[in-house]
Amino acid sequence: MIGDIRVDLTDWEGPLDDLEGQLAEVVDSSLLESMTEAADRVRHSDKYEHHTHAYENSVEGVLEGSFSSGQLVGVVRATAPHAAFLEHGTKAHTIEPKATSGPVQQRVKSRKSRAQMGSHRSLAFEAGGGMVFRKKVEHPGTDALHLVEESITEQEVDARMQDAVHRHLGDT
């Protein structure tokens, strides 16, 4: 036939499969790097004063799935018991002592504190340089800090991933 050009790309199948595998690794690696950096931002945020480090130690950036499987999700999460309270805030609420299995007095260290507390269930906390005991406390609530939510944007992740792919292809 006049004007037809036929090109057989059967031999390209192997190199294209290799390139696809390499790009999948680049995408996975780039997304994990982005999630890890976002987790570091959360851990080092000055919005929250870390007292026990339980929160910051619970923050991680991970991947769920893989690009090659068609199911890739980058996740930044904090798993400390109080993580949701920091992220989303709390409404005003009453705090009362929890029921205990043993004598409440065993939880208070000093004899003077135990004597002040008596046999009643009370909240005990330090304030003004001394121990304070209350039957209940009206907590005003806390503002949401959005530490995880604001750690990275989809646009930033997208730009980083595109940059990583272009670098890999030599197209900077």
Could you walk me through the main structural features you see in this protein, from its secondary elements to its overall organization?
With 172 residues, this protein is α+β, with helices and mostly antiparallel strands. It has 2 domains: 121 residues, no CATH class; 50 residues, no CATH class. Helix content is 38%, strand content 19%. The protein is built from 5 helices and 6 strands. The strands form 3 sheets. A two-stranded antiparallel sheet has the order 1-2. A two-stranded antiparallel sheet has the order 3-6. Strands 4-5 form a two-stranded antiparallel ribbon. A hairpin with a 2-residue loop joins strand 4 and strand 5. The longest helix is centred in the N-terminal third of the chain and has 31 residues. It is rod-shaped and about 95 Å long. The mean pLDDT is 86.
